[in-house]
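Today's session is about reading a structure prediction critically. Students often jump straight to the picture, but the first step is always the sequence itself: look for stretches that repeat, for charged clusters, for runs of hydrophobic residues. Only then move on to the predicted structure, which in these notes is written as discrete structure tokens rather than atom positions. Here is the chain we will use throughout the hour.
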Amino acid sequence: MRRTRNLRDVEANKEEKPANWRDWVLVFLWSFLGYMCIILTVLTYFNPGILPFDVTSVLFRKEISPFFAFSQGSNHYSKPQGFKIVALVPFANHEPTSILECYLQKNLVHNDGFLDQVVFVPQANDALSMEWLYSIVNQTPEYAIAPAGQDMEWKSVMNNVMYIRIDGDTVFLEDHTIPTIVNTKLNNPSSIMVSANVVNEAALASLHSHPGIALPYLPELYHVDQSSRSNSELHQDWRASSLPHWQGPLSFRIHKDFEPPFEGHRWLLPSDKSIDRDPISASVYTDTGPTLDDWTVGAQQHYSFLYHLEDNDLGRYKFPIWVDPTEPISQNFGCFWGNDAVAVHHMFRHNSKTATSHPKKPDGNRPHVIIDGKGLVSHYSSRQGAAGLDATDLLARYRAYAEERVCLQTE
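Below is the predicted structure for this chain, in token form.
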């Protein structure tokens, strides 16, 4: 009876219509929000730098860095005017520096870069390396050679010039690495030095060793005959995807003082993921594993980096800036004013070649140092045992990447 009366009651029908309309709006809004969440989840899975946190780490239990980049790259930043920007390059071996030279060329002013000049500082007397150095300096007007000797880069500076100390063993830097550390230095005038985000160096070693960043690479144990390799393996390729899976005994572990299995060996990903087989896991979970300074850790980090480079996933390494880290900083890629060269040198003088804490300046004040996490650098670190790294094919892989992606752009 009530329903029949309502059908004839015009006012009752008018009251029901708004309620039906609101129900449909709610359904639409919830559907839209659900659809947008799905899209956002997919986007952040393939491009994690979109958000300052990783949504997929909750859904897929994906390991991420405790510091996460707000962006994978850096906005365009034009070269500042009114002062020169000079790269100081301590030079010892032409093999890694010939890779770096492609990046130096790309960053010269006449190639729309920031570098007005590059000054090489010889630190070795190898005849072949010096011959190579003189040949490239003669071909490039912006190149120069400073007097040879240790620490001469600190004595070859001028006031009111911005310097970027780039170690000669640097084998990779992003397009925006130099612009972003210059920008950060200008925006933080009280800082004495701004270091780039140097992979697995100094204060960043433990950060870059987290699962998901450092992958469980293991050394190739058996020399593979050339005839059994695929075409992509025969022609030097930097891509990790061209590598086969690791093969070896289940009992294999990396221990202290592990020797290279043979010259030119590769590091490969195993199909299984045992928790303590790779060097970094062994150093953390066992008493017999190598230290984080060992060449095996360096090799694992380099191959992991090349994996993420191919996967366009370098955002895993990044963060905005880190002011005054309590642990040492790397001196292998840093920006400072010539006026501060004495103070910067003082910071590094009593420490190892690659890292330092930041002690007081000669005037007694503690300097501010910054690590800019937005621009990545990969350094072929001698502190991790160059002899061990030299037994891998890492330099050939970095060279293949540079020749494919960097050198050809400056020819």
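Discussion point for the tutorial: The radius of gyration is 27 Å.
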